[in-house]
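Dear Dr. H.,

I hope your travels went smoothly. While you were away I took the liberty of generating a structure for the chain from your last submission, since the lab meeting agenda had it listed for discussion. I wanted you to have the full record in hand beforehand rather than looking at slides cold. The sequence, exactly as received, is reproduced here:
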Amino acid sequence: MLVLSASADQNSTLPIAGDVPNLDTAVVVTPTSITLTGPPGTLLDQPLQIKNFTSSSITFSVSESLASQAGAPPSPTGGQLEFAPVIRRLKGQKPIVTATPPPAEPLVFTTAFNDTRGDNFLVGVDLIEVLWQKRTIPIVGTVLDLRVRMLNPDSAVAGFLTIDIDQDFGTGIWPAPWNLGPRTRDLGAEFEILVDLSGQISDSLGFGNNPIAVIFRTADTSVVLPLFPTVTFDSVLTATISSIPLGVLGLNDPDGNLNIGAVFARLSSTPFPDFGPDYGHGIVGVETGVSWIRENRTSVTVASGDSAIVDVSILAAKPAGTYTATLKLAAPGQPPIYVPVQMNVMGAGTPSIGLNATSFGDTLMPGDSSTFQLTISNTGTGDLFWGILDTAGTSWASAFPAFGLVGPGLSSPTSIKFVSAGLSSDTTYSSYLQIVCNDPASPTIAFHISLTVQPSTTVEMNVDQTPTSYALHQNYPNPFNPETNIIVDIPRTTFVTLKLYNLLGQEIQTIEQIYLPAGKYRYRVRAENLPSGVYLYRITADGFNTTRKMVLLR
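The corresponding predicted structure, in token form, is as follows:
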């Protein structure tokens, strides 16, 4: 729910001079106060109109100041983390500067943020904290060292460090990284640092199978600089990225303060990411302004008798609670105008999972595949985070995407794919996929699946007719798509082989290879997985060898 309220109507006035509003000498600002009420992640865009009824042009500076805040954080997370699109954009680009070697002197770090432990409900990477230190290196100038600590049983980890150089969520990319992160963080990314501790992404970029951190600009995804983290692991995995040259890369604005966030995921069994911090952002340096408010301009000139608009955005990147701030419009030689802002962040609510099916079964020919769309819905009042795990080790079934986020009242599709290749024909397989989520009433759901693999051919025997000689009849229909019939005559009990070949003589399928009693046999052959073309079918029985052609026409 969003609620915007103004404490005065659209004709209310706030004087620049004097206590009594006068349309000849006053400035009218509407609304005179702003209130946002909504769950975490709510974004409100509110135009602030300034009307100048004075006899001269006035230039206002626009700023914000923090009044108070209150709240206690729960533990949200974000959607599925995909590295492939970023890797594709990074490939082939060249770094513009040379990596600086890590420093020899000891590092003394300050905490940028702490992340809630145990907040990754799928037991993937558990981000603990990000720390920072600034130093000065001759010639290079100011450099930034970052240290990431996480709980994880191995080093097969990759992720992003988001850099918001102007501490403004309205510039750069939000939500970060790459619109994949939670809306509860007020980070507008101008730079991202892709961190690969496993060596897999590094190798795909041509840097060898080593831990690497690649800095790139979000505006054009151009590679700025490769760095090589140091990694230590005992009970905690620690990655230190040293000597990021801020001035050379333009990673520093004049006040020297940055906002920072992180997301990391395991590249193996449970790749669900952990975003940190849960709310807001981490800080390198000090906080400036009010992070959850932004204006599209810091100065505005309003001509006499005219009006202007300042667009104000309020982001509920805070835990549940009430937050107040003040917008200040100041003009030289005039008393300032104050616009109170109040943000009421409601609790995140409780999700409730719903499925369009609780099981799925299918019947396939050998080598065939099928896909079932499973729809996951959220009938609750909070964001639903879900994942599908193959805890039973089912080789013939998979889910994509395997993780996701569904907002209240919405649904999300995922595909369950069955593949019969490599399975025995005339056999039924049963298993299950585990659906896990943050719905407290149904945290785990066993989704039962079954697959029956049919024989590729079926045979019918006519025992009332005993042929007097061997024969291989022309298939019918011919041409066919995708099914045809082959009839053979067997005058006495013998070992029979009936096979299908392509025109190169390569065997495609064994239709029959068994002892058969005398009789007339009809084989129904399906060719769903074969391309159009001419094929040969050949029988060998008791010295009888005959080959015929069939045409598959799709």
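Two observations you may find useful: The longest strand covers residues 58-69. The chain has four domains: 3-72+289-345, 84-278, 353-453, 457-552.

With kind regards,
E. W.
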